[in-house]
Design brief:
The chain has a single domain, classed as 3-Layer(aba) Sandwich (Rossmann fold), CATH 3.40.50. 37% of the residues lie in helices and 19% in strands. Bound molecules: adenosine-5'-triphosphate and magnesium ion (MG). The site of adenosine-5'-triphosphate has 18 residues, from helix 1, strand 6, helix 5 and helix 7.
Length: 205
């Protein structure tokens, strides 16, 4: 029997950027995680889908980004389930897959969230249940105060301080719409994908 320690990073990844990759890499190293599973949301319940790039594009860019971090993997459980994405469902699906793949092993999940995401946890679906089933890892993010939400079990959250990475997908979309460079913010392969597919050229969210 093996005890696995696995990170999960949920988001819209519209597009994936070095902020996501650096956060996952640092947390994996500090907490000794064997991998981090990136799970792109179908319809993030807390965002308007109006300006969301198609799932196939967000997924394709994640596939390209995964070449930069060969230890990490990608799951399409949220895209396959479709509809509004709730992290409690992500965990349920990953648990089911894990039991089928490693019936003799155990797993501890570490859900990684930036300060902005973590502070909104009280509004997520079944937050207490989530905190029972996964360790929550809160990571600092520039421009976002680190506020712990008022949820039972939150005192167990693992706080990880990393060097600030001032990158966001919104900023990247704005830059592309304005014709500015996004060099250094996303892997080169992702930047090429964005320009080849004409993503984010219109007015952004
Ligand atoms: P958007 O601007 O469209 O909301 P985003 O950059 O916030 O995009 P998401 O896909 O919404 O990216 O974020 C997924 C997860 O990654 C969230 O938990 C978010 O807090 C975290 N995250 C993203 N960028 C950073 C960063 N630079 N530092 C710390 N955490 C980050
Ligand atoms: Mg965000």
């Amino acid at each position: 029997m093996t005890a696995h320690r696995v990170g999960i990073m949920g988001g819209t990844f519209d597009p994936v950027h070095y902020g996501h990759l650096v956060v996952a890499t640092e947390v994996a190293e500090l907490l000794d995680l064997e991998t981090v599973i990136f799970s792109p949301a179908a319809l993030p319940w807390h965002k308007t889908a109006e300006h969301l790039a198609p799932a196939e594009d967000r997924l394709a860019m994640l596939v390209l980004a995964m070449y930069e971090t060969p230890n990490f993997v990608l799951t399409d459980v949220d895209l396959v389930r479709g509809g509004n994405t709730y992290t409690i469902d992500t965990l349920e699906d990953l648990d089911t897959q894990f039991e089928i793949t490693y019936p003799d092993d155990t797993v501890e999940w570490f859900f990684i969230a930036g300060a902005d995401a973590l502070s909104g946890l009280a509004a997520w679906k079944s937050p207490e249940d989530l905190l029972r089933r996964a360790h929550f890892v809160g990571v600092n993010r520039p421009g976002h105060e680190f506020v712990l939400p008022n949820v039972t079990g939150i005192d167990e959250v693992i706080v990880v301080e990393i060097e600030d990475v001032d990158i966001s997908s919104s900023d990247i979309r704005d830059r592309v719409a304005l014709g500015q460079s996004i060099e250094g913010l996303v892997p080169e392969s992702v930047a090429s994908y964005i320009s080849e597919h004409g993503l984010y050229r219109g007015p952004s969210a």
